Amino acid sequence: MSLWQRALVARQVVGKQLKVLYLIDGRAAVSGDLRRACQRLGRWQEVTARLLTDTISPAIGREFRAKYDDFTGVIDLNTLSQVRLVYQTYLYQLLEELKYSPENVLSP
Description:
Layout (H helix, E strand, L loop, with lengths): L2 H29 L2 H22 L2 H8 L11 H24 L8
Helix pairs in contact: 1-2, 1-4, 2-3
């Protein structure tokens, strides 16, 4: 598979995970159940880190996992939205890298 094909697959993975992140945040806003939202967010983080490791590189997976690893500080919907923003910003920056310079992030 060429570099550009791999970058396309990686961008699709990142896009899908962003959609799931929005769903988690939206469901939390509707239900108000922070405990459940934090559980979902933790599972989402693990799945996303694994997908990033498999499709992009192990270093990116580790870097993503280290972005936010303790959800005990999430005490209200505002804090949850701030956590979402951290992940969202990271993933959008990754999308830009994959689009314009995939050779910098994809493992050989």
